[in-house]
C-alpha cells in the first residue's frame, strides 16, 4: 500500500478534500490559510500533502519543460470533462474533486491527473508556487521541531539555553570545525542533535537544494559541530550569558532561515573556510532576504515556540540579521543587549 493511500485512510474525508483542494489551489483565500495552518499543526496532513506533491511532481516537471497548452484546447477539454462528470457522477459526489480523484478506478484517476496537469501547463507559475509553499511549510515544521528540542533541553538543564562554554568575542562563523577551540555559534545547537533531542535532518530547509552525506550515530557522538555548513540551513541567535535565560522568557527571535549576508554554503566546497573575510555591509546586504525560499522572505522561530514567515527582516524595529551600529563584520561580534537580536552565521 502506497504512502498516499495509507495517510488517506487515516484522515477524515473532509480533511482529505481540503488538502487536495489546497494542492491545486481550488479554494478561496480564507480556506487556503486555514488549510495551511492545519498542515503546519498536523504531521499526518502534511505527509498526505507531501505524498500528493511527490506523486504529481514528475508530471508537472514534464509539462513545464515540454508542453505549451493553447487556450482554446484548454477550454474545450475542460468543457468536455465537465459534461462527462455530470453524466457519470451521481448526487453529492458531483461537488467533490477529491472524491473523483481518490474513489474512482485507476483509469479515471489517471485521466483526471492528466487533465489537471494539461490545465496546469497554462498556469506553471502556480505549480511553482505550490512547491514553494510546500517547502515553506516543511521548513516551519523543522523550526517548530527545533523549538521543542530547545525547550526539552532547557527543562532538563535548569532552564539554560543550549550553550557550549566560550568567551565573548569567540568566532561564530566557522561551521564544521571540530577543533578543541570554540569556533562556531552552531556548536550550541549541535548539542540538541548530539544528546538525542532532534535529528540532524531537521536542520536542513526543504527549500534549499543542497545534497549532503547523512550523519550516523557513531559520527554524531564524535563531532563537536555540524559536519559542514551545508548540513545546517538556519541561522541562530548568538548565545551569550546575558541572553541564555532572558530569551526563553520573552518573545525573541531564536532562529531563522540562513542569514543572506553570511551565506557561504553556495561558495564553498564541503570543507570549511579557513579565514573569515572582513565584510563591510552594502545596501544589497542590508536588504537581502534568505536564499532558502528564493529570496521571498524567511521563516522565523520565536522563543515562545511560534514560527512565522515574514517578507522582510525587521522585527520590533530590529534587523534580525545584523547588529545595531555595526557595518563591518569580522566574524566574532556579539550582541550587547537582548533587544538587539543577531542571527548568524
In percent, how much strand structure appears in the residues? 5-15%
Q: Strand count, sense and closure of the main sheet?
A: 5 strands, antiparallel
Helical stretch tally: 12
CA-CA gap between termini: 43 Å
| Number of domain modules | 2
Overall average residue pLDDT:
77
Helix content: 40-55%
Instruction: Using the CA coordinates, give the radius of gyration.
Output: 23 Å
Shape: globular
Characterize this entry briefly.
Keywords: Membrane, Transmembrane, Transmembrane helix. It is built from 12 helices and 9 strands. The protein has helices at residues 3-9, 13-24, 29-41, 43-66, 71-88, 97-103, 106-120, 124-156, 186-194, 217-222, 243-246, 283-287, and strands at residues 234-237, 253-257, 279-280, 298-302, 307-310, 314-315, 318-319, 328-329, 343-344.
Structural account:
It is a single chain. By secondary structure, the chain is α+β, with helices and mostly antiparallel strands. It has two domains: about 5-125, no CATH class; about 160-345, no CATH class. β6 (about 315) and β7 (about 320) form a beta hairpin. It is globular and about 60 Å long. Helices cover about 45% and strands about 10% of the residues. About 30% of the residues are buried. It has twelve helices and nine strands.
Draw up the topology in text.
Layout: H1 3-9, H2 13-24, H3 29-41, H4 43-66, H5 71-88, H6 97-103, H7 106-120, H8 124-156, H9 186-194, H10 217-222, E1 234-237, H11 243-246, E2 253-257, E3 279-280, H12 283-287, E4 298-302, E5 307-310, E6 314-315, E7 318-319, E8 328-329, E9 343-344
Antiparallel strand pairs: 1-2, 1-9, 2-4, 3-8, 4-5, 6-7
